Amino acid sequence: AVCTLIASQDLDTLRVTCSHQDSQGVIVRFMSPEQLETLDGIAQSETIEAVPLLEWIAEHYTEFGIEVEIVSDVTAEGHQFCHGFGGFGARLRFEATHLPDDEGAVFEFEAEIDDYMTCM
Fold first, then answer.
1. pTM for this structure?
2. Cβ neighbours of residue 109 closer than 8 Å, sequence gap 6 or more
């Protein structure tokens, strides 16, 4: 579960809501403005709404009980986050005790539980 969502102020991802003709259901996709123009990723769908993801998050984050932090790339840390990590990340509510890697090994993540209690 996410405690704090961290996003770049320059994030250009769109939240696109589409209706699917076959199932009559709604599909939500995340894409760049260039992908939306071509609509290659949405076969047999009709676009209902395309909203910048940051705008949608700003309107709906309280429904999920999370905090949102917007980061600029002016500082060295902000630049690393925005360009090195793609400009989107999160701080988790609960401790992650085991994280397997691709080779099956397990990493131990050691931290005090108090570090995670500030979000609750």
1. 0.67
2. 95, 96, 97, 98, 99
For 65-95, what is each residue's pLDDT tens digit? 999 999 988 988 888 888 888 888 888 888 7
Amino acid, single-letter form, for residue 27 = I
- The three-class DSSP label of residue 94 is coil
Tell me which DSSP letter residue 64 carries: G
Measured from the Cβ of residue 119, the count of other Cβ atoms closer than 10 Å reads 16
Quick count: other Cβ atoms within 10 Å of Cβ 11?
Answer: 17
Angle at CA of residue 78, ends 90 and 98, nearest 5°? 35
Distance CA 107, CA 103 (A): 11
Distance CA 7, CA 70 (A): 5
Angle at 85 between CA 92 and CA 105, to 5 degrees: 65
